[in-house]
Design goal:
- The structure holds two protein chains of two kinds.
- Chain A is about 15% helix and about 30% strand.
- Chain A is α+β, with helices and mostly antiparallel strands.
- Chain B has a domain of about 110 residues: Cytochrome Bc1 Complex, Chain D, domain 2 (Orthogonal Bundle), CATH 1.10.760.10.
- In chain B, helix 3 packs across helix 6.
- The C terminus of chain B is likely disordered.
- Classes of the chains: A alpha+beta, B mainly alpha.
Chain lengths: ~425, ~220
């Protein structure tokens, strides 16, 4: 895409703006209604964008975010994984609001890189314990009756997995960014299974990916028939390649690894397969050396995204504390916030639709007087589950679990507004 | 009125039951029958009981040769893992210790998982290029490296299900609703929940492992 003429003219002003921002952390502005001594040239002078014409239509046939939002991107932690193809990056949850994750910011987790598949060359097979093994084209799938649209969160079971032994990463993007929440368009998995006709001894379904990891997981038939989707759309457009284009499985409320991308096959069986991703990985090693398996459900969890280490406080006085909450067991009913490390709690305001197995957004408007804060949030769902503290989780599971860390996070806000990831007593 | 209501109800029940029966057999007719050759090409998964295994066999010795040629550059000559690629060998007795080594020998519950995973994804970057015999041989070699079979062992479809991995009994189904029942507490504490102001026990910045702006796309 070509650099716009107005964009070039803005360079000098852009530089001045970022220089001003860089100094912001050092000197906090105090309370509101600060008197302005000299007139603001941004108001008194006619700006370039006011004087000159901007780009016309079709200069940006597929729209991109503003050039001033280039820092809002997925990021990775290089030391986490040995290869780029089997790796993960993180949603910048501190830079987005509401409950829907923009498609280009939804975190990626691949085990064999991004499969680039021509939808005309994609096939979906159903075989195993079915009356009639079938092959579908993408056209077939898009002609299926009963198309639905649903918003669901997808959280990697390893989200916050680096934090089991203590505070590791300074940024909610890194500690909690293996999550996204998008609108899916697709058909119920049940529709495909019914078309093939599941035999009475068919108790498990195994989705398989078409990528170089040929990902497989075992899903109980009850879940497959209840609410799983075969999705080809996200946020109103086709799935992104990194999210499984042309078609993926949606397994609401359950760990992200099961949501097989680039879905090419569904096998029905009478027993689980015990694939690598449900034995060697995605099992929870407990303190006694034994392991839980088939820990599919993602428990209720929340995180304050602002303020957080990547989003420090810049001003005393009025501030907006916000964050996200979700539960794989149902609907988020309440989020409490503490600014004194969990001694006292206040209930935050939930805003936007509260949908089952979808993300919720909470706000807590507060005045900051420059005092040190220890910020926490605590989610509750409609089953009565209350997000536990990290200490409570460790007491049950030990330190070797890796997966399913939904413990309460603490952010230390220092007097200068900078924020740190800390562990507290 | 009540007679009318009864009649309406009866009709409603009748109407409801008829489509329900019809629905269970209603098909869209979309898709086509999968051919046996197509199913055979994609259905390569193997279960712990050996279901799905192809015909074939391979020895520890053959496996060693294949391993050194096609696997050792990442997994190390002795399965110790080169760089940070996965360790395949050792780790017995570490599962209840700090930094457990979860290898095939120490952690994996089933031999079939090794065979299935190698067959579908390995070598990394050249997936599904190994023959059935090569996959048997590599599985045999990895079992041998983990002291599960002897040096002269040969793995085949026939003896596959007899090979047991030592950690198989140490997995159990999700029991969170029982063992973590305390987390369903309904009325959590709201005020004076801790006797004193919390103390800081650890800081992420002490580790200094958070990526900076050099990671990921450059920020301009």
């Amino acid at each position: 895409m070509s650099e716009t003429s107005s964009g070039r003219k803005l360079d000098r002003r852009g530089f001045l703006k970022s220089a001003a921002l860089a100094g912001a952390g050092a000197s906090l502005s105090s309370a509101a209604a600060v008197g302005q001594t000299a007139p603001d040239p941004l108001i008194t002078e006619v700006q370039d964008w006011t004087r000159y014409l901007g780009d016309g239509v079709q200069a940006r046939p597929y729209g991109q975010p503003s050039q001033f939002e280039k820092h809002v991107v997925r990021r990775d932690v290089e030391w986490l994984t040995v290869s780029r193809e089997s790796s993960v990056n993180f949603t910048p949850i501190h830079e987005i609001d509401g409950i829907i994750t923009p498609s280009g910011l939804a975190f990626e987790r691949h085990h064999g890189g991004i499969a680039e598949i021509d939808p005309a060359k994609h096939r979906v097979m159903i075989n195993g314990l079915v009356n009639k093994p079938l092959v579908f084209t993408m056209d077939d799938i898009k002609r299926m009756p009963g198309r639905v649209n649903r918003a669901y969160f997808l959280e990697c079971a390893a989200n916050s997995g680096m934090e089991w032994r203590g505070a590791q990463l300074n940024g909610c993007q890194f500690t909690h960014g293996m999550i996204h929440n998008v609108w899916y368009t697709g058909i119920p998995l049940k529709t495909l299974l019914d078309e093939a006709g599941v035999k009475t001894n068919g108790k498990w379904v195994m989705p398989e990916g078409a990528d170089a990891s040929a990902m497989t997981r075992s899903i109980p038939i009850e879940k497959a028939m209840k609410d799983c989707l075969v999705a080809f759309g996200m946020n109103g457009e086709a799935l992104r390649p990194e999210q499984g284009y042309p078609v993926r499985l949606v397994v609401p409320g359950w760990e992200g690894n099961m949501w097989v991308k680039w879905l090419r096959r569904l096998e029905v069986g009478d027993e689980p397969w015990h694939a690598r991703e449900e034995t060697s990985k995605y099992t929870d090693l407990l303190a006694d050396g034994r392991s839980r398996r088939f820990t599919w459900i993602m428990d209720a969890k929340s995180i304050v995204t602002n303020p957080s280490p990547q989003a420090p406080l810049k001003h005393k006085g009025p501030n907006v504390l916000t964050g996200i909450a979700w539960s794989g067991r149902g609907t988020i009913t309440r989020v409490d916030v503490s600014v004194d490390g969990g001694r006292n709690w206040k209930t935050a305001r939930l805003d936007g639709p509260a949908m089952p197995l979808s993300m919720a957004r909470f706000y807590f408007d507060f005045d900051w007087d420059g005092r040190e804060l220890m910020i926490q949030s605590r989610a509750m769902d409609d089953t009565g589950y209350v997000q536990p503290t990290k200490q409570e989780l460790r007491a049950v599971r030990g330190l070797n679990s890796i997966y399913h860390n939904n413990g309460i996070q603490t952010w230390l806000v220092r007097g200068d507004g900078e924020v740190e990831n800390v562990e507290i007593s | 009125m009540s007679r009318f209501r009864k009649t309406v109800l009866a009709v409603a029940v009748l109407l409801a039951s008829v489509p329900a029966l019809a629905q269970s057999v209603k098909k869209t007719g979309l898709g086509r029958v999968a051919l046996p050759e197509e199913i055979a090409a994609w259905d390569i998964d193997v279960r712990p009981d050996g279901a799905g295994l192809p015909a074939g066999m391979g020895s520890v010795k053959q496996g060693e040769e294949i391993y050194l040629e096609r696997c050792a550059s990442c997994h190390g000559e002795f399965g110790e893992g080169a760089g940070r690629y996965p360790v395949l060998v050792g780790g017995q007795g570490t599962l209840n210790k700090e930094n457990p080594d979860k290898t095939i020998g120490s952690f994996w519950p089933y031999t079939s998982t090794v065979f299935d995973y190698v067959r579908r994804t390995m070598p990394f970057g050249n997936a599904q290029s190994l023959t059935a015999d090569e996959t048997y041989a590599l599985t045999a070699f990895l079992l041998n490296m983990n002291d599960i079979v002897k040096d002269d062992f040969e793995l085949s479809k026939d003896n596959f299900a007899k090979v047991k991995l030592p950690n198989v009994a140490n997995f159990y189904p999700d029991d969170r609703e029982k063992t973590e029942k305390a987390f369903w507490r309904k009325t959590p504490c709201m005020t004076n929940c801790k006797p004193e102001a919390p103390k800081i026990l650890g800081r992420a910045r002490a580790l200094d492992v958070t990526p900076d702006d050099k990671t990921g796309p450059r920020v301009e």
